[in-house]
Amino acid sequence: MNPKLSELRKKAMSLPLLPGVYIMHGKDSEIIYIGKAKALKNRVSQYFGSQNNHAEKVRRMVDHVDWFEYIITDSEFEALILECSLIKQHAPKYNILLKDDKGYAYIRVGAGDWGKLSYVLQKSDDGATYIGPYKSSYYVKSVVEEANKIFMLPTCSRKFPQDFRKARPCLNYHIRQCMAPCTGRVSLSDYRESLEQALDFLKGGSSNSVKQLTAQMEEAAENLEFERAARIRDKIASVKKMGDKQKVVANKVLDEDVIAGFSDGGKTCFQIFRFEGGRLFERESFIVDSGENDTEEFLLRYYTMRFDIPKNIALDSVFEGMEEIERWLSERRGSKVRLTVPQRGEQAQLVNMCRSNAAERLAQQKGATVREYSVLEELREVLGLDKLPEYIESYDISNLNGSENVAGMVVYQNGRPLKSAYRKFKIKGVEGQDDYASMAEVLTRRFEEYRKDGSGEGFGKIPDLILLDGGVGQVHAVRDVLGRMEIEVPVFGLVKDDKHRTRAVTGDGGEISVSARRQLFAFLSKMQDEVHRFAIGYHHARRSKSTFRSSLTSISGVGEVRARALLKYFRTIDNISKADLPELEAAPKMTKDAALAVYRYFHAAE
Questions:
Q1: How far apart are CA 376 and CA 319, in angstroms?
Q2: What is the side-by-side strand order in the sheet with 67-72?
Q3: Considering just the CA atoms, what is the radius of gyration of the chain in Å?
Q4: Which residues, including other chains, have CB under 8 Å from residue 420's CB and lie 6 or more apart?
Q5: What integer pLDDT is reported at residue 367 of this predicted model?
Q6: pLDDT along the chain (606 residues), means of 10
Q7: Extended strands (E) in 359-453
Q8: Is residue 230 located within the same domain as residue 301?
Q9: Domain residue limits at 328
Q10: How far apart, in whole angstroms, are the C-alpha atoms of residue 566 and residue 558?
Q11: In terms of Cα–Cα distance, which of 404, 417, 414 is closest to 375?
Q12: Which pLDDT score is estimated for 406?
């Protein structure tokens, strides 16, 4: 924690209640963050109060603040313009800084008679023909991929005619996405015809391409070239099918950007769908550290890089400075720009689709799937958590009438079991059956290990959520432990019904039913079953070991150490009972007398 926190807060409380820009400096006077405020005193003092409600990015920034300065402006809009200018000038490390790596894209037609169709981001002096430039690399990539599929052009690395008949055709030939010139059975005239048709499609669009292809098909039919006419007919069908596919992402508003974000508490992914002429022509995504004014700051950074600002921008949520951002965008465009948060209809569906893609992108970065991330998002919503519970620990106690008390801990990371992090506990300080005290002991030992470790892995990691197999009693017992140790982790219990199925989640505010939430219900049930299986498996293993050991220690000359050594050497009691005398004598820790006693014990009836 920043040792200057109280001093900085005192200074912040003396600021005026006026709009302006504040500039945070690190120890070497480097500018680390720039922000704007409607009332400087209220905004800046929030940074130096309680850190519990801040995002991780904000806490990190506050830890590095050595001093700050401010500039008063006449309005919040002036503050926004000044903030934007200063961020562009100084590029502070804790502001959202987006790198504009967008370039122009080209359609490339390879040199030679058997040239291939591809898309590139730069022209080269290689004898190929280049069509473009196009401002949307997403559009060029998409249409070139579609053209290659429709007109069955090769996309492999083989060179023609050098590689004719050197290898079998690839999968694309078998799924009718390549004519397979590698077989040597495709004439150059047929190949060139398909390539020219593909170029006509790329240059003229699907509707114009259909007209040209229809004319070619009719001409072929009149000349009794029925096979060629059939091939062209299939291409027309594919072009029309692609047109229908494009309608899925068509938009009644001709020019619009749709922007939505998905946050896991640590990172936020913003996805942008850009529409021009009613069709999706560009997709972009940016992953940034989550902060407190993510959407506002992202819009500032994104449209600082863009000069082609549309009239309409659809967003997934309202934020405090929308009017100022709208005015700023309007001035940059030179005409009115509308920011909207659609609630229903096609626009709302587009925003939801955009947000789903943001979730998918963030999930991919974490090695998860969007389904796993969506159930974690649902869990966060149901429990009212501040951040996505990416790292969950679940605990269960197992015993039989108070004997062989043990506990199991399972871990789920990004919605999946992390078996390398599972842990077993033998209850040491609780006699008899007391699940509350047992759970308190387990969590105390777990977080004592955290204090010793601090590696950020295993016991050295703080979980985002703790789930207990049990009700309010277990929850209170664990929260008392965490309170004494000054550790802040959300704790909830998983309650079962009379058929031992997960029924609800419980905390201080009563039970929260999950039975109506199919995906979340399945996730929690699976986790509760997994921790129960793990704990009871450990309990059975200890009981079996105890039973085996007790039978061995009843033999004259065999104590605890020798019984343990025998079990380790022979693995099971059955193996010990079947061992002959020389094998018993050869075992670790054994003497001839002890081996004879063990042999006689298991062979007394013979």
A1: 24
A2: 31-37, 20-25, 67-72
A3: 34
A4: none
A5: 74
A6: 87 93 93 93 89 79 93 92 91 84 77 88 85 74 82 89 89 87 90 86 68 80 81 76 50 80 84 83 84 83 88 92 92 93 89 88 78 85 87 87 77 91 87 84 92 79 91 91 91 81 79 81 89 82 58 80 84 83 90 89 70
A7: 391-400, 403-413, 416-417, 423-426
A8: no
A9: 256-365
A10: 10
A11: 414
A12: 86
Query: What's the confidence (pLDDT) of residue 364?
Result: 80
Listed in sequence order, the residues at least 6 apart from 300 whose beta carbon sits closer than 8 Å to its beta carbon are 80, 83, 84, 87, 325, 328
Residue 550: its pLDDT value, please? 57
Q: Which pLDDT belongs to residue 249? A: 47
Q: Which two tokens stand for residue 249?
A: 């992402």
Cα 133 to Cα 37: distance, rounded to the nearest angstrom: 42
- Measured CA to CA, the distance from residue 61 to residue 41 in angstroms comes to 18
Name the phi and psi angles at 14, rounded to 5: -95, 0
Shared domain for 116 and 265, answered yes or no, is: no
DSSP string covering 337-380, please? Answer: -EEE---SHHHHHHHHHHHHHHHHHHHHHTT--HHHHHHHHHHH
- Count of domains in the chain? 5
Q: Which residue has the tokens 């009644």?
A: 252
Query: What is the structure's pLDDT at 207?
Result: 64
Residue 344's region, left for phi above 0, alpha for psi from -120 to 50, else beta, is beta
Tokens (6 digits) for 435: 């699940």
- Which of these three, 64, 90, 116, is where a domain ends? 90
At 283, give phi and psi (nearest 5°).
-130, 135
Give DSSP secondary structure letters for 550-574.
HHHHTSTT--HHHHHHHHHHHSSHH
List the CATH number of the domain containing 440.
Answer: 3.30.420.340
Is the Cβ–Cβ distance between 459 and 386 less than 8 Å?
A: no
Residue 216 lies in a domain: yes
pTM listed for this prediction: 0.61
Nearest to 34 by CA among 260, 261, 287, 291: 291
Q: Using an 8 Å Cβ cutoff, are 370 and 363 in contact?
A: yes
pLDDT of residue 556: 84
Smallest CA-to-CA distance from 273 within 289, 288, 261, 287 is with 261
